[in-house]
Amino acid sequence: MAYKRNQKYPWKPAPAPTVHNQHKPFNPGRHGAVWGSVRFEQDWGKSPVGDSQGPVIGKLFIGERYNELTYAEASMIIDTLRDGMNAHKVGVRLGRTNQHAGYKDAAKYL
Question: What is the pTM of this model?
Answer without folding.
Answer: 0.62
